[in-house]
């Protein structure tokens, strides 16, 4: 077999701090490199083929000029970006994996690439036979974010009320379902009628479109809230402070309102932290992986297979779509977890 | 014995939301009422004489028009305010206390008054023989605030760094000493050279006057901080976010910057909660009393008696001084815990 084109997604140009990335300029698909997958030397490594790539809002933060400090590393201009992906092993000189095995990890957006070793990669057996794409979504990093944060910080009590933002997304929809399993009343917001319907379908007691209904009025009527699951920050966070019950827990997972506006909005109602004895917990999924990963993989794929946990996907095909899908998830135009299917097998 | 004047401190006029209370108008001392302490009927209650009254910044929040909602009850206009006090029993028809016993509680600022029962009052034995005034300070509510918050939320690890605001006050000075006992590096701020000296005397590694030195530069040089003990909010809170280490704990006990300025300042650097996986905990001392009170009274008065925990008091005499002392503590003109000695025994 001769060399074949090996497509990749390059970080081409940093978007301005304010505004959305440009679907054509920020990320660029290139196919001018080739690889002979049968003969390319592995030097002890593992040749993999990318099957599914996850596109998530947090990527926005890494698409910046490297001189700007943040909590995660900036992507390197001119190089492929990375994201959580499922890849299948084509050839291996590593005794721990063999051709046909599936790996999950934060891999480069390249059709074929060689892993030096298994650092950061996890072998997925998928005994349950659920779609591979789910292992980048509700059974992957977003699902873990929901599950780990819920187990570690939510301290749910039956009959309490939770408010979940971006409740139709892969994290939020998992939080809604975990909260219902624990007997809570769930208020959930999203930005379109289709998303509201999905939130109702998975059990939200009060699902509303924040673009057409007043979050303030909804929380006034259905609150106060004992848990606030925050993906958005900004004004909604201030409303959550306003409508928090005493001893409420705020779980801070994202502040998407600030991602494309050059900064996080000031918080006006912070005084409630003191007045209401609130607990606020920020976290990223990696903090809790050692503690909860095994329980997650034991529990969640099986529950998905049995239909106990539902999901919705926003599926595009081919790495060429990466730039547009990123803009879609930042604007909220996706319904369900955004994934790119690069190859079926 | 005939009736004697029974002085009291009345909530005379609510201060404006913005600005300090007026030392002459907000609280007014009245001595036109009398009591015959030997014959006044008790109806099963307990006649006590006030010995010491504590004056604390949080009182500002209760001196408001009652239509304004807050986390604590507004004082009633025209009635005596209440505060944590030590009183001695003169006569008792309650079998649980007798003349000569000392009680600690949130009592009215009146020289002589009758308690219906012991609800909210705690008998203090003072086997250690420390000054009674300390039971309203480092061995009272402020000391408990420091001790309870430290035990429940600080999660200190030897070698970590803490930043304590208002470190010369009764809460802050206790926090400094608890942190040193646990092997931490302590950065502490206060607003005068005398206060800075006191913070050094009790063990602060870096003690500075925030009025003459830059908090930002001090934290840049001696941080990052693993624990932030917040009494002030506002800009200092934003600097604490800026200089927080990953996984830092913020303990929110007061937001004094906002008490006299009509509101809490917006928080600009809240994004760090997410980026640095911070934990923020607001609390009031009453939340934790059931869990930690016994340990506190077993440990702290004895440590004070042995000289292991040091203190500083700002002592005034007579209930007439209440209005001025309140302004003093809100302006930070006091050095040490503000107490009013009403009677020596």
> What value does the average pLDDT of chain A take?
93
Task: Tally the beta strands of chain A.
Answer: 17
Tally the structural domains of chain A. Answer: 2
Radius of gyration of chain A (Å): 21 Å
**Most extensive interface between two protein chains, with residue counts:** A-B, 32 and 32 residues
| CATH architectural group of the largest domain in chain A | Alpha-Beta Complex
Described by the principal axes of the CA atoms, the overall outline of chain A is: globular
CATH topology title of the largest domain in chain A: Quinone Oxidoreductase, Chain A, domain 1
Helical percentage of chain A: 25-40%
CATH secondary-structure class of the largest domain in chain A? Alpha Beta
- Given as residue ranges, the uncertain stretches of chain A (5+ residues, pLDDT < 50) are none
N-to-C SSE string of chain A, H for helix and E for strand: EEEEEHEEEEHEHEHEHEHEHHEHEHE
Provide the structure class of chain A: alpha/beta
By CATH, the superfamily of the largest domain in chain A comes out as: Medium-chain alcohol dehydrogenases, catalytic domain
- Secondary structure tally, helices of chain A: 10
How much of the sequence lies in strands of chain A comes to: 25-35%
Multimeric state of these chains? homodimer
Largest sheet of chain A: 7 strands, mixed
Rounded to the nearest angstrom, the distance between the terminal CA atoms of chain A is: 18 Å
Domain Enoyl reductase (ER) (chains A, B): 23-340
InterPro entries (chains A, B): ADH-like_C, ADH_N_2, ER, GroES-like_sf, MDR_fam, NAD(P)-bd_dom_sf
GO molecular function (chains A, B): oxidoreductase activity, acting on the CH-CH group of donors, NAD or NADP as acceptor
Protein name (chains A, B): NAD(P)-binding protein
